[in-house]
Specification:
Two copies of one chain form a homodimer.
Chain A (H helix, E strand, L loop, with lengths): L1 H26 L8 H8 L25 H8 L3 H8 L7 H14 L5 H8 L4 E6 L9 H13 L3 E6 L4 H13 L4 E12 L9 E8 L7 E4 L1 H14 L5 E5 L5 H16 L9 E3 L1 E2 L6 E2 L1 H10 L6 E4 L2 H13 L9 E6 L2 H4 L7 E4 L2 H16 L8 E4 L3 E2 L5
Parallel strand pairs in A: 1-2, 1-3, 3-4, 4-5, 5-13, 6-7, 6-10, 10-11, 11-12
Antiparallel strand pairs in A: 8-9, 12-14
Helix pairs in contact in A: 3-4, 3-5, 4-5, 7-14, 9-10, 11-12
The structure holds a DNA duplex (16 and 16 nucleotides).
GO molecular function, one term (chains A, B): transcription cis-regulatory region binding
Keywords (chains A, B): DNA-binding, Repressor, Transcription, Transcription regulation
Protein name (chains A, B): LacI family DNA-binding transcriptional regulator
DNA sequence: TTGAAAGCGCTAACAT
DNA sequence: ATGTTAGCGCTTTCAA
C-alpha cells in the first residue's frame, strides 16, 4: 500500500510536470507566461479612455484613471451636483440636461464610487452575511441563493464571511463589517440551532436558520421542523403503516427535538404506539462531531423478528444508509420497507435508487424571507421582530 | 393523490399557524413581536457612548454615532494624522503617543472607515468573487473555502456574487464591483470549462476552475483532469483488472475530454484493450441540462455476457448509480464489481456503502492558489500569467 | 431648475 | 516625531 502510494506520487508528479502542455494541445489554449506588456494591456482600466478635450488641463491624469462626477460635469458644462442628481435619479433636472448628462456618463464610462458616497451618506449599500459553515455546506447553499436573489433586487451587495466555527474569526468578521460600514447583517447557520453572541450585534441583524439564546425577540427565520416531522409521520400513517421506525439525527439538536416531538404527537393522534426500540439515533457523538452510524442501526432494527415496515429518518443521508441496509438484507424498497427522508438534499434524494420521498427544508425561502426582513428593518420598519417559521413541504418520490 | 396533497396542505397550514408557539414551549424562546423600544435598544450603535468631555462643543452628535479619527485625535490632544499613523501602523510615532492613541481608540471604540480610506487610496481592500453557480453547488464550495482562507490572511474581504448562468447578471456584477472599486476579481465556475468574456475584464482577474477561450495567458487555476483520469485508470490496472468499463460525464465538457484521453493513454501504456461498448456516457443531454442515466447504462453493461470487472466513472454521483445498479443485479462491490469514483464529493463518496475509492478534485487548493496569484498580481507581480494545473490525488476506500 | 460652498473621514505630501 | 494643508468623490444645504 505504501509502495503503491509512493508510486502514485511519482506518477502524479511526472504527469503534473507535463500534463499542462498536453492539456493545451487538447484545448488549444496557448500556455505562455504572459509578458509584462500583455499583462498590462489586459488590466488597463478601460474607462477614461475617451476623456475628450473640452476640459482644461487640470483634468489630465487622474489616479486609477477613474472618471469622477466632476469629469462628467466639466464635459457637459454643468455643475457636479447636477450630475449627481442625474446619477441618483433625483427630481428637478430638465429633460434636456438629463439626457446630456446621461450621454456624457455613457461616453466617459463614469461609474459612481460607492466609497465616496458612503463617506457622505453613511450607507454602504452592502449587506454582510456571516455563516458558520453554511456557505460551504451543500444542504444549505440554497439559503445563500435566496438571500442573494432578494438582496440584489434591492440593489444591495452581499459581503460574505465564514466563521468556520471559530469564535475569534467571528469577532474579526464583525470588525471587518464595521469597517466597511455594512448596512445590515444576516447571520446564518448550517443547521437549525440556537446561537449565543459574545456581545449583542451593533449592526441590524437577522438570524437565518437559528435563534438567539439570549436575545428573545431578535428577528430570525427558521424552518418549521415540528410541522415537517408531523407531515412525515402522517405520510407513513396514511400509507397504512403501523409499525413505524425512526432513525434520528443527533437528538440534541433543535431540529431533532422538534421533529421527535412531532413524531410522538402524530402517532398519538392516530392512536398508534411508539415503539422505543424502533426509535434510534443514526449519529454517534456530540454536536459538531457526529459520526454516521445509520447503516448499522438500520440493519440491526431490520433483522429483528418483529421489524418496522417503514423508516422515518433524520435526513437524506441517514435515509440513504437505511436504503443500503435494506439492500444488504435483500429487502426491496418500498415494497418490503418504505423509507422517508428529510431535507430533500437533491444530490442524494433525487439520485438514489429508488429516489426518496422526503420532507424539504425550505432553505431558499428562508434566505429570501430573512433578506426581506432585514431590508424592511433597514428601511425603518420597526415591527420586524420575532421568530418566523417556514413550512416544510413533503416531496413524494418512490421510496415511501 | 390529489386528495392526499390537499389534506396535507390543510394540515400543514394548521400546523404552521400554531406550531410557532409549540416550538417555543420547547425552546424557551419567547415569541413576542418586539416593541419599538427594545428594537431600538437592540440596534443602537454602541460605539461613541464614551465620548467623554475633553472636546469642544463641535464634536456633539455626529451622524450614525460613528467615532471618527478626529474624535480620537481631539481626545488625546494630537493631530488627525498622528492617529492615522497609529491606526495604519506607520513608523515615526513615539511609543508614548502611540500607547495614548491606542488607548483612546479602544475607549472610544473607533473603527476605521474603509469607504473614506478608499476615496483617498483608491484601494478598497475587497476582492470580488464571481461564480456561475459555484457558491451554490456542493462539489465546489471548497473552492470558496480556499479563497476565503487565503484572502482573509491578506486582510482583504470577499464580496461574492452569483451569475446563476445569466449573462445580464454577470454584467450587473462587474458593474457593482466597479462601483465598489474592487481591487481584484476571482472568476470561478462550477465545473472545469472554458469561458468567454463579453468584454475583457477591466479589473485584475484570475480564473478559477476555468480557462478563457479568447484570452490566452489570462491567469487561471484548474484541476489536472488528465492526470486524475490517468491515476484512476492506473488504479484499476494495478488492481489486476483487464476488463475495464468507463461511465463518463457529458463527453463535451473539458474534464471528460481530458480524462477520456488519459484513460486511453493509460490503457495503452499497459497494453490493455479499450472496449468501445464499455465506454458510455452516464449523462444525457447538452451542457447545462444533463440528465443522469448512469443507472440504466450500468445495468445494461453489466447484464451482458461479457462484462467489465471494474467501472471507472465520471463522478461520484455516477459511481453511486453504478453501485445501485450492481446491487440490483445481486453483485457485490468490490468483489464482483469494483467501482472507482471521481471528485471525492464526500457527502456521497464517504457515506455510500461501501465507500468509494475516488479521485479527489483539489478544489480547496485551487481556491487557495487562485487567491494567492490574484494577491500577487495586486502586489505588482507581473509574471503571474498562464494556466496552472493542480494534481488530483486518489483516495483509496473500499469500492475499488 | 440649477449651482456654490462646505464638509464627510481619511491620507499624501509636505512642512516643522 | 508631529502637524498642516489640501483634496479624494461625493452629497447636503442653502442660495439663486
Amino acid at each position: 500500500m505504501a509502495i503503491l502510494c509512493g508510486l502514485l506520487t511519482i506518477v502524479r508528479a511526472r504527469w503534473l510536470a507535463t500534463s499542462i502542455s498536453r492539456q493545451l494541445s487538447t484545448s488549444s489554449i496557448l500556455f505562455v507566461d504572459v509578458d509584462n506588456l500583455s499583462l498590462n494591456r489586459l488590466y488597463v482600466v478601460q474607462s477614461g479612455r475617451v476623456r475628450s478635450g473640452s476640459d482644461p488641463a487640470e483634468t489630465a491624469e487622474r489616479k486609477g484613471d477613474m472618471v469622477s462626477i466632476r469629469d462628467v460635469a466639466a464635459h457637459v458644462g454643468v455643475s457636479d451636483k447636477t450630475v449627481s442628481r442625474v446619477a441618483n435619479n433625483e427630481p428637478n433636472v430638465s429633460a434636456r440636461t438629463k439626457a446630456l448628462v446621461e450621454a456624457a456618463i455613457a461616453t466617459l464610462g463614469y461609474v459612481p464610487n460607492m466609497g465616496a458616497r458612503l463617506v457622505r451618506t453613511n450607507r454602504s449599500g452592502v449587506i454582510g452575511l456571516i455563516s458558520d459553515v453554511v456557505s460551504t455546506t451543500p444542504n444549505s447553499v440554497d439559503i445563500i441563493r435566496g438571500i442573494q436573489d432578494r438582496v440584489s433586487t434591492a440593489k444591495q451587495s452581499l459581503l460574505i464571511a465564514n466563521t468556520a466555527g471559530a469564535p475569534d474569526a467571528e469577532q474579526r468578521i464583525w470588525r471587518t463589517f464595521q469597517e466597511h460600514r455594512i448596512d445590515g447583517v444576516l447571520f446564518a447557520t448550517m443547521y437549525h440551532r440556537r446561537v449565543t453572541f459574545a456581545s449583542r450585534p451593533t449592526i441590524p441583524t437577522v438570524l437565518v436558520n437559528c435563534t438567539a439564546a439570549d436575545e428573545p425577540g431578535m428577528p430570525s427565520v427558521v424552518p418549521d421542523d415540528y410541522e415537517g416531522g408531523y407531515v412525515a409521520a402522517l405520510r407513513a400513517l396514511d400509507q397504512g403503516h403501523r409499525k413505524i421506525g425512526f432513525v434520528t439525527l443527533n437528538p440534541k439538536i433543535i431540529a431533532a427535538e422538534l421533529r421527535g416531538k412531532a413524531f410522538i404527537d402524530a402517532m398519538a393522534s392516530r392512536g398508534v404506539e411508539v415503539r422505543p426500540e424502533w426509535v434510534r439515533a443514526g449519529y454517534l457523538g456530540g454536536i459538531g462531531e457526529e459520526q454516521l452510524c445509520a447503516y448499522d442501526v438500520a440493519r440491526d432494527m431490520l433483522q429483528a423478528a418483529d421489524r418496522p415496515t417503514v423508516l422515518l429518518t433524520g435526513n437524506d443521508q441517514v435515509a440513504m444508509q437505511c436504503l443500503f441496509a435494506a439492500h444488504s438484507l435483500g429487502m426491496r424498497v418500498p415494497d418490503d420497507l418504505a423509507i422517508i427522508g428529510f431535507d430533500d438534499f437533491q444530490m442524494i434524494s433525487a439520485q438514489v435508487i429508488p429516489p426518496l420521498t422526503t420532507v424539504a427544508l425550505p432553505y431558499y425561502d428562508i434566505g429570501v424571507r430573512a433578506a426581506d426582513r432585514l431590508l424592511a428593518i433597514l428601511a425603518g420598519d420597526v415591527s420586524e421582530g420575532g421568530v418566523e417559521c417556514l413550512p416544510c413541504p413533503i416531496v413524494i418520490r418512490a421510496s415511501g
